[in-house]
Design a protein that fits this description.
Length: 263
């Protein structure tokens, strides 16, 4: 059994070894990821890959709590981060009320909220009330409608400087690590170097302190679209479809079940 990561060991890994984060939404997959992932994120991306919606915005706190508990059943020895869904941290009071609900109703070790300098007061308030916070800067999926799409960040000097300010503000507010999403690789590298807590990249190049991928993307199960940054470590969709076709063919031909499957 691998040793469960802690806030301290996560922070200490900076500059030592890249951190491995993966999403999971249920016990079945979480159990399979537990050995190799340092942290499991119950991401609101489940609203897309699990619930089939076109963005993350309609995920609810109750759904995040349900899935966090399911993941916890499969990965009892993993550091778990529950994503706070859209609209649940609009101000300090709401954020704390909802984060306490997550901590009381699940065994999550931390929560994740999107935003940089603009959300630093909320992160600080949560941290000062014993809520461990993972930040999320750069491309913010919960801003997809207000920004009119998923926009890569760090293309201009102004954006580069803002990202550094965001990272520093998130660190100063007390977050123990942060995700950086959809940022030009050279800028993400500079951002990671500008803070002392781990910066976990997604679509932000290799020169950061770790990587996170949505599991259904990296297993090739999500077919709607594949962002450029995703590496498919297996062609899950083809494997699953071919297995189900074999099953259907064998049912129709009465090849399945055989004697060994029969009481
Ligand atoms: O919801 C999610 O899965 C995430 C990752 C993209 C980091 O926030």
């Amino acid at each position: 059994m691998t040793k469960k990561m802690t806030i301290t060991s996560i922070k200490k890994s900076k500059g030592v070894s890249p951190l491995v984060m993966i999403t999971a939404y249920d016990a079945l997959f979480a159990r399979l990821f537990e050995t190799d992932a340092d942290m499991i994120l119950i991401g609101d991306s489940l609203n897309m890959s699990f619930a089939g919606k076109s963005d993350t915005l309609s995920a609810t706190l109750e759904q995040m709590i349900y899935h966090t508990n399911a993941v916890a059943m499969g990965a009892k020895n993993s550091f778990l981060i529950c994503d706070m869904p859209f609209g649940t941290y609009v101000n300090k009071k709401e954020a704390l009320k909802n984060a306490i609900k997550v901590f009381q109703e699940t065994p999550a070790d931390a929560i994740k909220i999107e935003g940089g300098e603009d959300r630093a007061d909320i992160i600080e308030y949560l941290c000062s009330n014993q809520i461990a916070v993972c930040g999320h800067i750069g491309l913010l999926p919960q801003a997809v409608r207000s920004e009119g799409g998923y926009k890569i960040k760090g293309k201009t000097d102004e954006e580069r400087l803002q990202l550094i300010r965001d990272a520093k503000a998130v660190e100063k507010a007390g977050a123990f690590c942060m995700v950086i999403e959809g940022v030009k690789a050279d800028v993400a590298c500079e951002v990671a170097k500008s803070v002392e807590i781990p910066v976990i990249g997604i679509g932000s190049g290799k020169d950061v302190d770790g990587q996170v991928l949505v599991f259904s993307d990296m297993l090739g199960l999500f077919e709607e679209f594949t962002p450029k940054f995703v590496k498919k470590y297996m062609d899950g969709a083809t494997l699953v479809k071919s297995a189900v076709k074999n099953y259907a063919d064998e049912v129709k031909s009465r090849e399945f079940p055989q004697d060994i499957h029969t009481y």
